[in-house]
């Protein structure tokens, strides 16, 4: 398996590139519209063809490049089936994983940051990896105050679905605002400031209710565009050039 972690600085978003040399295919998790050329160059340099894009959820801080990449490469666009997006080619769920040759992306339904958020577990020789989107971040978590967010649901998702994974599972989040790249389930269980060290549900709900986060600058453009798999009108794309602060983590 080929694996690359790519970073978009305006929204502090990580995009993950997977490649399968046996099939010649590549997959991108959570690609960002402004990074289309970079991502295609990375795929081409590896001698691969983009076969899939895969989203963890409908993002509020950036527009996905899924639609643009499909128009350029013919790749398939995959979203959680719960989103029920007509623009998606593939709907994934816990009962319907996505496979690229011998590499399987196993969805874990993890609501709380958004109502339909999913993480993806990838078990390959050498390491188990979980791609946690905005649910579990390094020493933090995603906010829970819009898009059907719910702090109790997020607490259960993380404790029941993520903290129950093997301790050495590598944790790759969708964002980090301090340029940290990877954690482990053991580290987050022990040290996560919002969820670790046996913190109770009541404590977590109090922490989340007291964050007092600003309204995300891009949400009014990003959410409608992402419901169209990133089909973004030009005038809205121009508005996206305004810098975005780290409001998603809080």
Automatic annotation (TrEMBL):
<dbReference type="GO" id="GO:0016787">
    <property type="term" value="F:hydrolase activity"/>
</dbReference>
<dbReference type="InterPro" id="IPR036866">
    <property type="entry name" value="RibonucZ/Hydroxyglut_hydro"/>
</dbReference>
<keyword id="KW-0378">Hydrolase</keyword>
<dbReference type="InterPro" id="IPR001279">
    <property type="entry name" value="Metallo-B-lactamas"/>
</dbReference>
<dbReference type="Pfam" id="PF00753">
    <property type="entry name" value="Lactamase_B"/>
</dbReference>
<dbReference type="InterPro" id="IPR044528">
    <property type="entry name" value="POD-like_MBL-fold"/>
</dbReference>
<dbReference type="GO" id="GO:0070813">
    <property type="term" value="P:hydrogen sulfide metabolic process"/>
</dbReference>
<dbReference type="GO" id="GO:0006749">
    <property type="term" value="P:glutathione metabolic process"/>
</dbReference>
<feature type="domain" description="Metallo-beta-lactamase">
    <location>
        <begin position="12"/>
        <end position="175"/>
    </location>
</feature>
<dbReference type="GO" id="GO:0046872">
    <property type="term" value="F:metal ion binding"/>
</dbReference>
<dbReference type="GO" id="GO:0050313">
    <property type="term" value="F:sulfur dioxygenase activity"/>
</dbReference>
<dbReference type="InterPro" id="IPR051682">
    <property type="entry name" value="Mito_Persulfide_Diox"/>
</dbReference>
<protein>
    <submittedName>
        <fullName>Zn-dependent hydrolase</fullName>
    </submittedName>
</protein>
<keyword id="KW-0479">Metal-binding</keyword>
